[in-house]
Amino acid sequence: MGLGEKAALSLGFKAAMGLGEKAARVIALIVNIEAAALVVYELLYVLYQVTYVSEHYAIFFGAVFTMAVLMHIEETLRKGPEGSRTFFTVKLLLLSSSMLAALFAAFYIRTHILRLEEEVGLLNQTDIAVGLMSLASLCIAGWFIWGRILVFFLILLNFNSNPFTMLASPPLDGNGLNPQLQTPLMVIHPPLLYIGYVGFSIPFAFAIAALLSGRLNDVWIHRTRRWTIFSWFFLGIGILLGAYWAYIELGWGGYWAWDPVENAAFMPWLPATAFLHSVQVQERKQMLKVWNLSLIIIAFSLTIFGTFLTRSGILSSIHAFSSGPVGIIFLAFLAFILLTSFGLLAWRSKQLRGQPELDSLVSRESAFLLNNVVLVSALFTIFLGTIFPLISEAVAGVQVSVGAPYFNSVTVPLFLLLVFLMGVGPMIAWKKASWDNLRRNFLWPTVASFVVALFLFIWLVRDFLPLLGFTLLSFVVFTILFDTTLAVRARHRIAGEGVFSALVTLARRNQRRYGGLIVHLGVVLIFLGIAGSMSYSIEREVTLQIGEGLSIGRYHIQFEGLKRSQQPTHSRVEGAFRVFNEGHEIGVLSPALKFFPNQKSPVGRAVYRSTFIEDLYIILSGFSEVEQNQATLKVLVRPLLAWIWIGGFVIFLGTIVAVLPGRRKLA
Asked: Tell me, what's the pLDDT at 225?
């Protein structure tokens, strides 16, 4: 087969397999539109005759809150114990269409290969044809397994309680959405988490297809790399937006409480992060094949486990939506996935033997492997703390709770080691790092980070863990800056490019590397915000009469009175507090307590003023009669907290750089 025929065959194959992936994306879009249209119809025309609408909607909702209801119903339809038969019947039909598209792709490839072989007279002698057919069968098997996963959810949801059952006596108005969910963030946060959860089913399906077919090379990784990054990114951003929602909406001044369902969302993200690092070792050195297969199995299994925790009601959590027999079904499905997946892994163990060994402990392979060990260790400690109340109750009959002190004490050292590896891993040489490589890449970043540590120590940062954390974070930043500076200088010498042009060229030529470095920088900023807000927060709670004030840190807060108002959905009591920063007035902040007709307790609305240095967070905890103008106030100063959200944006930019299609070279 000539070069032209091979190129045509390769292009034909890519076009055919691209059809299956594009079909999946289009189907997902169609299903979302269909679901939204179905619920809009129920909201606008059927209204309170429908059980779910009467429970979660109300006449007073505006456009944004209506979208929040749609997202809430969409999430429940997909993951919960309730489902619409109409919705999922349509989805099943669309799934059948995607399977037909995959079969068409296989038929197209086979026909195209045979025609080219006959034209050039190389029948039964074309290695490329065998390779492409092998890849085609792997892709089709992967999509078939993914379809079986979806069919399980379709069966589960179609034969459980239906949210669109009709009420015999519909109410005049619905109960409305939970007040704490009446925020635009609820239009974004649940679907992002859902995309992340469901996205991991695709690399899992291809991993199982590789085990079933015996094609255990890198093909399944190449086919699913972008899917994995896509899922990892959406799950991570969904978690961050959930933390932001907790910070601005729940009114307690925090963003992460190690709640069981928070942990359930975070746990799949850890093995997925490990997987994205260790696959680079497999691609380059043909190592860690068993490890990578195990990581993706664990990541997907944890998404099912998280759904089980959320829907079974087995643990007490603000995020637990329901309880019932569906939890047992999820648990059985999880057991089936684990037994089948690791059974296949054991079955193929002979084919996975004989992998190359590490050449040196001082190498990039070793750094990535240690990075994986740290991430899995963090996963194990979080998993143990999450399920320990269940174990305690089952074994000893004693109900216990595992709180933030345990999680902080076991994860902080691990995450500090992870930060160090973030600085070392991308810069150290493959195979075996020489002394010259270590000196060239790490001498100046190490010196600069020690200078930062000395400055912080003089600036009265004397606690060991915060000082170590800030030093390691600065080390990662300096390694990234130093490496990038050397690369930019090289581009300037070779091509005469300016700084900006050189950065663009570097990013386009090595998207995975520089996209990953930007993501690392975003993670550093998140850790900076966490370290500052955890270590140096100040908190005070006082009761003030009108005209009185309190001082906290650099701020003085003066109470100026209470005001009651009536809103369309609730009544509200606001406090007016004039804020001064080192004697300079910066404005009036007005925290409030909101009273909803269907809620027994008031819902707080905290207010905050955020800067790059710190957040001032004010909570109205209670009040006397409005006319008496006496208020109980809780004030928190959270240093560096805004960098958590900035870090999330930087991760977004890095992911875009890593996954955007690069320039393709023509042979």
From this structure: 82
Mean pLDDT check: name the lowest of 61-70, 180-189, 514-523: 61-70
Burial class (CB in 10 A: 0-12, 13-18, 19+), 358: middle
CB 434 within 8 A of CB 359: no
Q: Strands 607-610, 630-639: parallel, antiparallel or unpaired by DSSP?
A: unpaired
Percent of the chain with pLDDT over 70: 70
| Conformation bin of residue 556: beta by default, left when phi > 0, alpha when psi is -120 to 50 | beta
Q: Map residue 653 onto helix, strand or coil.
A: helix
Radius of gyration of the CA atoms of the chain, in A: 28
Share of the chain above pLDDT 90, in %: 27
Q: For residue 626, give every residue at least 6 positions away whose Cβ sits within 8 Å of its Cβ, in sequence order, or none.
A: 562, 563, 564, 573
Query: From residue 222, how far is each of 148, 202, 206, 469, 605 by CA, in Å?
Result: 22, 12, 10, 35, 47
Beta carbons within 8 Å of 209's beta carbon, 6+ residues apart: 138, 139, 141, 142, 144, 145, 220
The model's confidence at residue 157, banded by pLDDT at 50, 70 and 90, is: low
Q: How far apart are CA 286 and CA 199, in angstroms?
A: 25
DSSP 531-579: HHHHHS-EEEEEEEETT-EEEETTEEEEEEEEEEEE-SS-EEEEEEEEE
- Secondary structure (3-state) at 156: helix
CA-wise closest residue to 633 among 284, 253, 152, 211:
253
Token pair 């209801």 is found at: 69
Kindly list the structural domains of the chain, giving each domain's residue range(s) and its CATH number in brackets, ordered by start.
Answer: 3-230+285-309+325-346 (no CATH), 424-534+651-666 (no CATH), 538-644 (2.60.98)
* Structure tokens, 258: 């190690």
Helices 185-199 and 260-285: angle between axes, nearest 10 degrees = 40
Which residue, 332, 316, 533, is CA-closest to 403?
A: 316
